Amino acid sequence: MYTYDDVDQRLVEERVAQFRDQTRRYLAKDLSEDEFRPLRLQNGLYLQRHAPMLRVAIPYGLLSSRQLRTLAHIARTYDRGYGHFSTRQNLQFNWPRLEDVPEILAELAVVQMHAIQTSGNCIRNVTTDHFAGVARDEIVDSFVWCELIRQWSALNPEFAYLPRKFKIAVNGAAADRAATFAHDIGLHALKNGAGEVGFRVIAGGGMGRTPVIGHVIREFLPWRHLLTYLEAILRLYNRYGRRDNKYKARIKILVRELTPEAFREKVEAEWLQLADGPATLSEDDVRAIEARFERPPYQVLADATVAALGACGAWMKRNVHPHKQPGYAAVSVSLKKTGVPPGDVTAAQMDAIAALADRYAFGELRVSHEQNLVFADVRQADLQDLWRELRALGLATPNIGLLTNIISCPGGDFCSLANAKSIPVAEAIQRRFDDLDYLHDIGELDLNLSGCMNSCGHHHVGHIGILGVDKHGEEWYQITIGGNQGLTRPGAPAALGQVIGPSFARDDVPGVIERLIEAYLARRESDDERFVDTVWRIGIEPFKEKVYGKRHQAQDHRRRQLAAA
Amino acid sequence: MASVIRHRTIVEDSWQPLEADPWLRVGESGLVPDFPVAGDLLVPLRLWQLRRDDLIARDGRLGLLIEGWDEPENFADALPRLQLVAIHVPQFADGRAYSLARILRQRHGYAGELRAFGDVLRDQLLYLSRCGFDSFALRDPGRAEESLAAFRELAAALRRPYAWQRAA
Prior knowledge:
- The complex is a heterodimer of chains A (565) and B (168).
- Chain A is of the alpha+beta class.
- Chain A is built from 18 helices and 21 strands.
- In chain A, the strands form four sheets. In chain A, strands 16, 17, 18, 19, 20 and 21 form a six-stranded mixed β-sheet that branches. Chain A has a five-stranded antiparallel β-sheet with strand order 1-2-5-4-13.
- In chain A, helix 3 runs antiparallel to helix 11 and helix 13 (423-432) packs across helix 15.
- The radius of gyration of chain A is 23 Å and the shape is globular.
- In chain B, helix 4 links the parallel strand 6 (84-89) and strand 7.
- The A-B interface holds A 5, 7, 10-11, 14-15, 17-18, 22, 31, 35, 38-39, 121, 148, 151-153, 155-163, 227, 235, 238-239, 243, 273, 277-281, 285, 288 and B 69, 92-96, 98-100, 102-103, 106-107, 121, 123-124, 126-128, 130-131, 153-157, 159-168.
């Protein structure tokens, strides 16, 4: 866990005072709606369909039990007793009162938390691999680099009014578990031939209405230049990104319009002016940040084979992950129980999870971008006990990596941007696939669901993606297959899904997913071949045929749909 | 004369701006009127490009009006002769002026007065100042007094211990 120094603490307190005054002036009508908007957004506050929504930053997804208890307290005191973990590893409260927000931020500051830059056209919360620091394939501990980026980007005066939002992801391991190719900037740690640490810099990726896989603009950036290089990219974007059309304002459009080659040349030219400047990092700088992270005092243990059968065995298989420290494991706490909106946690569950973190996981937990929680450091000998406790809380659904581990945005039930509802669709699919044996037989599958083109549910990079669309005021769902969030295993790079055909009414969606799965199971070459591998091997045609029938039937479907619309 | 905030103090401004649009229409056809003989003159970039030598020869201080998207290369030659660079902010959420200010200060070593004018509001003053602006013509000059408090916000950022932290 990172512990604030005096200046960090002072800064969040001063930020609360600043926003308290801004809110007061807005309520006194000294500040107009337009003038207040970017100020409140940069403090995490949206004005939503039913009530304001407050997005609390959980930098790189790392959270202490003490902080989680404060979140539970806020949920109970200022909200309706629950919170929602988002795909940006943040936590959202859906029902606070505008007048209360300064007070909520003050409560957060006490436990070294804030909502700075969780929204608005600025550099957002930096995200990373939820197994940072414990993964066996680790190259660097990405938390340290994320914290450096957090400090550099938070309250950075030059980049507070960018053309559009800006998201940075850092991955510190061999496998990309941070979706670095789907971010405005993705940083992938690696070592060069001399064993020196650096980063592969990827820019211009992103989802939204124009999904793009990012371009590698530098194969190896030595670590000391990390911040000056980010500065060069951000400065270029701030100066030349489009401001005339918000749908063309993300950096991916600038990269495309310039071409990745010309963009790279401009970044390098700008960087030459900044290289070795004041934002250059020294070994002391990095060590100072590293020293503020408290490490778990591991016991010397040996790896044990834990024999577990039945439900606990299924959980061990899916929700328990290898750890670099012998005798320890990482544990996913599934927030994807059927009937509960993906990512939602009640205040009582938060308190209970905090207690479990204290007892089993050194008082620490992480939020994954798949909207689950992770206890990163659990003794293998404690796994069965932990499972029993999690099961009692409804948090032991053994579905990590499986079809029902659905990533979903809050959708039309909450979000004013959404075209369609997400949560009921996710639930209907979970109900259709409630047979655990069948689910495990299907194997690894990322199913991602967004209620609109903004793609908060990351549907473009789901092995199966579902997108809510509006047709003449009705909710329809478009389905893509073959997407992939990143190089999670060798030979499986980041990819965007392809649309299988005309969209479907809500009630038809679970049946369509079922047919896609049947097509896969009939054609997979081995149990190891995942759904997405089969799609890549045989293409989308066989899947289309299974869903729509032969070509003429697809046209029939289209005609029926038009008639209905 | 309107008041501006300069070095966190409210002062009466002595600069005389030449209105860009009507003036340039005349200028480009070659019928450039005489400059005011005395006083501090603030001129559009286009005029500098057309009448560089005359502007240099003139008595009195010289300032340049530019837009946030202007390329510094187009007026870098003017910088050593300028006492004021005034960057227009068309809309308060347009962040280009921030980067341009940093480039002028850090790359071109411009040390004279750097002013933001246009849609300049209290809640942007702090970040503008941290990017190198030291002078502000507010959209509503009547709010200058109450706006001074903005400079005292987030003071801890300046006390961060490491150079890389203060560089942001």
